[in-house]
Amino acid sequence: xxxxxxxxxxxxxxWSSYGMLAIAIVVELVALARSRARAREYAIEVMxxxxx
Amino acid sequence: MAGxxxxxxxxxxxxxxxxxxxxxxxxxxxxxxxxIGLYIGFxxxxxxxxxxxxxxxxxxxxxxxxxxxxxxxxxxxxxAVSLIWNTRLAAMMAQALAPTGAMFAFVxxxxxxxxxxxxxxxxxxxxxxxxxxxxLLFLYLGYIALRxxxxxxxxxxxxxxxxxxxxxINVPIIYFSVKWWNTLHQGASVSMTSSPKMAQAMLASMLIxxxxxxxxxxxxxxxxxxxxxxxxxxxxxxxQQVAKESAK
Lengths: 52, 248
Prior knowledge:
The complex is a heterodimer of chains A (52) and B (248).
Chain A: H1 2-6, H2 11-51
Chain B: H1 12-44, H2 58-85, H3 88-120, H4 128-149, H5 153-167, H6 170-180, H7 196-232, H8 237-247
């Protein structure tokens, strides 16, 4: 198993590459969820302003 | 065909629920293809006789680079539609693609750096393909920054669409850079084929992950466009109702 992770001595390069892709996807999905929540809140805010 | 009202879905109010129904399908397909592609890439494809295990970066490097270029062309296409027919949804689709395109451009540069170091001896060289891909990343970031700098969304649509269209010239430059200039970056035909079987597993993994990147991009941009629609239609009754119901 640890031999597999070593990637024949190239582990640092291989996992730095795959790791950054994983981080980028997580960051994007979190940002997506947050912008969704923001959009909802904004629409509700506008609605309440209009009603007031 | 006459039964399907395509123009119906060019209205944000109608497209919003349609996009919501499509996201789980594309998202699930992306996840399944990623697992299959990585399995083949790491456990079926053998070690490369020249580069050892370092070559396995190719499975994400190439799909990311393809996706970054392709997403830009699609984004520029939506920008053209929005300029010509003045449709709001097209501009919103372009806006929704930009962050994901930028993400893939960044990942292709990053993975390229970590592949270049063990094979070329350098993380970065001012090579034609690397430089034009860096410009692609800056075009995405410039597009996003320009949109953010203009308060009126309709004006932001037009100004950013122009920038995106002018920048589209960079995509064929990236693609043909390895032919036009004498570059360090390898050409389109990756000849790591000591045996045809190896090339097959490699190619299969790369193509499956390329499709995964497509489906991911579609799912994520559909989700993003829903937020954009909600923001920009916040004064419409339907958007307020949707926001109220989904907040429960």
